[in-house]
## 1
Amino acid sequence: MHPSTIDRFATEDVLQIAGLPLHPLLVHAVVVPTPLTVLALLLGTFGPVPAVARHQQLGEQLLPWAIALFAVAAAQWAWFRYGDARCAAARPPVRGPR
């Protein structure tokens, strides 16, 4: 490999995500959450924080609603996918691209 080719790769960011260089993204993906995790652990050792307790309570109330929403969506999908013959007859025929 010619040295000018190596210099070109050394000066350019070869790996990018959405136009951003990959190296700073990976570094910040580790550097930012680590102190936040330590801070959360320290706050949790001194007792429950009222906002966290309230957030947990709201999260526990959300689970039955999420299960119900999934059940209704699955039932609706099954109704339209495997519904009775009247539904299939009432649907307009599917036409391909013109």
Note: The mean pLDDT is 79.
## 2
Amino acid sequence: MTGIGQAGSMTSVRMGRTRLLVVALSILAVVLTLVLISLRSPAAPPRRGRVGASTAPSSADPLAVLHDWDARRSAAWAAGDPEALRGLYASGSVAGDRDVRMLRRYLDRDLRVADLAVQVLAVRVHHRGTDRLTLVVTDRVVGGVATGPGVAVPLPTDAPSRRLVSLRRVAGEWVVDEVRDRSAS
């Protein structure tokens, strides 16, 4: 009889460990799901107020810096304000020149882009300094409407792009210095 009790006891221990493992894996799956959902949620909606005005995050929290910058860019596009858009980039930034040229092409056709939304899928700090921040960013455009007289055309959602984005703090504001495509790497 003693042997049967011991075998039953070993079975109970194995079943207890199995249940513990299942519970632990279930909790891990829930946590990972929540992390993925938070990374895939769209960028914060643009803040209202003066175009180009920022409540720049005092700390260099990369995601907060990126969301704030995207909100200011969206506001400049919605206002059709090339000067405000240019102010989001460091002097001489090729990416800034390209963005302003694209905005001017829309304005030349009497179009504005409202509700421009960028979804950040992933962000990793490549380099961090007191007034420099270089990020590897994977994002995509997920919203926006080109509007003009009698026209309202939704912008297409684009495919995710991976870029190396270099920002620097100038007079308390984070501006984009350089953007390099990283999709192939």
Note: The beta strands are 112-128, 132-148, 151-154, 161-170, 173-181.
## 3
Amino acid sequence: MIIWINGAFGSGKTQTAFELHRRLKPSYVYDPEKMGFAMRSMIPPDIAWAAKQIDRCINSLSDSLFTEHLHTDQMSIQQAAETIAAQANLPLEPDSRGSLRRFTDKLMVKLNHIRIK
């Protein structure tokens, strides 16, 4: 099963993906942004390939495959992950981490996601 998390910059997609990964065994997080950084360094700057893909991507996201939408404005990362798992009928392991461990896990995800060119 593939769970595709899409949303605005800074909306918590990566944090939610890693929360699901911590509590859903076995699982794997595939971050296409990493491939994007690699491709961007290999493609000459005068080629605007990504910009040409926007309309195609927006049209594709209106497909019936992407009918599940979750508005997370008022949710914590844990609530978003639990809601996604429930909608997909996936049993999550209980989160027995304390608040300090949750904070450090969240911080490590942020730090590992920083890209320096």
Note: Helices lie at 13-23, 32-42, 49-61, 77-87, 99-113.
## 4
Amino acid sequence: MALAVRAPRPAGTRRANPGLLVAVAASAALQVAGVLVGPLRELLGTDPLGGGVLLACAAVSALPGLALRLARHRPRPDGDGCATVRGGAKDPGPGVRRL
């Protein structure tokens, strides 16, 4: 979710904030370690999870970010018959206003 709600990157840049990517990856690794690494499981009182459950958790956790990304790229009507889009194609076409 953190990657989906971040500010849009300026044109021509590939990675706006590599620190955010590192923080999200480290957070995910520590959360998975809490259910896979024996001493951490004992310390935190968690039970081991199987691969199928971990995959299901990963899929479900990606849904809010995916929904937000899709909502950002969908044109929204402003009430005047023109749709407003953020980013996207270079020439959105007639009846579409760029923010």
Note: The CA atoms of residues 26 and 34 lie 12 Å apart.
